[in-house]
């Protein structure tokens, strides 16, 4: 990978734009879910190209990188349990039109040291700045309670997280970060947005796409279960009858 | 050994699931029950979504009952006509059950309903089984022979119209009674992923007054039918049957069941029933705690 990046370096001299640009890449463009899938680790890396090849000097403000990885958005319903007549039941709910199924933000320094709240809100940097678009006319305090509940729930299963020091920058030019994607993510298009931040301002941004999909047998099973329930059900029944009968027949010989 | 479940969308330790199936199979072989009442809660505790757990547990019940049905057929212990009447009602029951499941899922109450039904059903039946088996043990200890119950069906059953003869069961009753029983038990099968044998057998014995010889075989025959129908109903409506999960459970449970059957022959039936009652009550107690205690996660997410 280092060699690959080294090839990019001569390009620095060719770029003459006034603003720095980003050349991002990911270790895997496609994540295939197969039987042994227990999650994936993505390596996001790239180079910062400065105009005229001029790296900022030691007295200039340092460059920082923020990487936001988002999974496909889902329309979801969050339910809240309350104690009713002695038992805990789902009593209240809130609908969200487009909540990301996965969200990770990695940065070279804690987010609040890099950018102000407005910038964070614009680029959805940080778990408290997610745009979840609730479908509700409930008071703001209630909406906040629900979105905090959702974020906490997904944090505990590794679906949402922030990693404040996860981006390493080498020589102010090369950066890299590892993002863990758990096995529970849905399939679909993931986006990795990389932001170059200096002096509280976003100077450059670049996006890469990653496709997570089931492949082979897992793909076949999931598709059949959704699309051809009758055949799927018959196969499940057949499998159980054959296994039950086979074990019985086998054991009777002893 | 980690294995990805394509419908549940998560990865599990295959060995744990096979052992879980094996343990349930052992119990189902020992006590002649399907074991679904244990599979579903255990899977939920392991972290499988309740819908997938209930849907996939039904196919484990099918596998566990198959070899039992064959064994009972060989010694003429199945009243096929009675079994088909039950299964006929059960067919409609599982369709209705799947609709109820879908509705409860949409309103978000499925977990609570599954929990409540478990507590009520298992609690009451476990309690009855425990008192009955303790009485039986006491009677054998004091050398008193247990009075045989007069085999007579419930007056309510006798009042139903269209009577027909069930030769193997020694009954002349309306087919409506078994059909309705099959209907309601199939609803529970679809909702809870249980076979319902532990409810079916007492009803057959004490309400229908069936010949004891055919009770277990016929109940298993019905369980086989209903659990297969429930699997079909789930495949068509909730799409939540995970065939990989089911296969893992089956691998364990069919083996466990065979060991259980052999093991059971060396234990007195009263003690076996008492042990089953204790287990049923333990599951009911655990589910009751789950309902009453503050859960770890107040919030839950469902796709809409």
TrEMBL record, chain A:
Give the top-rank taxon of the lineage listed in the UniProt record for this protein: Bacteria
Name the InterPro entries on file.
CHP02186-rel_TM
Is the keyword Membrane in the record?
Answer: yes
Q: What's in the keyword line of the UniProt record?
A: Membrane, Transmembrane, Transmembrane helix
* TM segment ranges: 229-251
Q: What is this protein called?
A: Uncharacterized protein (TIGR02186 family)
Q: Which organism is it from?
A: Stakelama sediminis
Q: What is the lineage of its organism?
A: Bacteria, Pseudomonadati, Pseudomonadota, Alphaproteobacteria, Sphingomonadales
Automatic annotation (TrEMBL), chain B:
Provide a GO CC annotation, any one.
Answer: plasma membrane
The cellular location(s) given in this protein's UniProt record come to: Cell membrane; Membrane
A Pfam family annotated for this UniProt entry: TauE
Q: What is its main location?
A: membrane
Instruction: Give the membrane topology.
Output: Multi-pass membrane protein
Q: Which family does it belong to?
A: Belongs to the 4-toluene sulfonate uptake permease (TSUP) (TC 2.A.102) family.
Name of the protein described by the UniProt record: Probable membrane transporter protein
């Amino acid at each position: 990978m280092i060699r690959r990046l080294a090839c990019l370096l001569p390009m620095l001299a060719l770029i003459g734009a006034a603003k720095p640009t980003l050349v991002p890449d990911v270790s895997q463009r496609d994540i295939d879910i197969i039987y042994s899938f227990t999650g994936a680790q993505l390596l996001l890396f790239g180079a910062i190209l400065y105009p005229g090849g001029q790296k900022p000097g030691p007295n200039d403000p340092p460059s920082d990188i923020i990487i936001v990885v988002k999974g496909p958005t889902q329309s979801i319903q969050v339910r809240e349990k309350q104690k009713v007549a002695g038992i805990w039941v789902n009593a209240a709910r809130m609908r969200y039109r487009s909540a990301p199924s996965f969200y990770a933000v990695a940065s070279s320094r804690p987010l609040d040291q890099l950018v102000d709240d407005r910038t964070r809100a614009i680029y959805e940097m940080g778990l408290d700045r997610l745009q979840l678009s609730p479908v509700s006319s409930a008071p703001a305090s209630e909406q906040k309670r629900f979105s905090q509940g959702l974020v906490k729930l997904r944090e505990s299963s590794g679906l949402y997280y922030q990693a404040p020091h996860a981006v390493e920058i080498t020589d102010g030019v090369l950066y890299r970060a590892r993002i863990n994607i758990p096995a529970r993510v849905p399939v679909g298009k993931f986006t990795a947005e990389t932001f170059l931040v200096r002096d509280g301002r976003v100077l450059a941004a670049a996006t890469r796409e990653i496709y997570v999909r089931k492949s082979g047998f897992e793909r076949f099973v999931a598709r059949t279960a959704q699309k051809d329930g009758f055949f799927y059900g018959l196969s499940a029944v057949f499998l159980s009858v054959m296994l039950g009968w086979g074990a019985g027949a086998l054991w009777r010989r002893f | 050994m980690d294995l990805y479940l394509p419908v549940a969308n998560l990865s599990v330790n295959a060995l744990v699931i096979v052992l879980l199936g094996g343990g349930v199979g052992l119990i189902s072989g020992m006590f002649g029950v399907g074991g679904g009442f244990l599979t579903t809660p255990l899977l939920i505790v392991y972290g499988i979504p309740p819908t997938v757990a209930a849907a996939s547990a039904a196919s484990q019940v099918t596998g566990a009952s198959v070899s039992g049905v064959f064994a009972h057929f060989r010694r003429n212990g199945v009243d096929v006509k009675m079994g088909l009447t039950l299964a006929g009602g059960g067919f409609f029951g599982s369709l209705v059950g799947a609709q109820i499941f879908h509705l409860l899922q949409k309103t978000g109450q499925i977990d609570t309903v599954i929990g409540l039904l478990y507590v009520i059903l298992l609690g009451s039946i476990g309690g009855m089984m425990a008192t009955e088996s303790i009485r039986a043990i006491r009677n054998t200890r004091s050398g008193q022979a247990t009075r045989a119950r007069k085999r007579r069906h419930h007056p309510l059953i006798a009042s139903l119209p269209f009577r027909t003869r069930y030769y193997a069961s020694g009954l002349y009753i309306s087919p409506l009674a078994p059909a309705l029983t099959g209907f309601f038990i199939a609803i529970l099968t679809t909702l809870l992923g249980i076979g319902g044998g532990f409810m079916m057998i007492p009803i057959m014995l004490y309400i229908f007054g069936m010949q004891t010889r055919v009770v277990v075989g016929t109940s298993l025959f019905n369980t086989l039918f209903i659990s297969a129908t429930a699997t079909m109903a789930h495949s068509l409506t909730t799409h939540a049957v995970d065939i990989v999960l089911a296969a893992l459970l089956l691998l364990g449970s069919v083996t466990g069941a065979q060991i259980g059957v052999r093991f059971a022959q060396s234990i007195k039936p009263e003690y076996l029933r008492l042990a089953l009652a204790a287990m049923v009550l333990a599951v009911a107690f655990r589910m009751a705690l789950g309902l009453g205690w503050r859960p770890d996660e107040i919030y839950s997410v469902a796709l809409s």
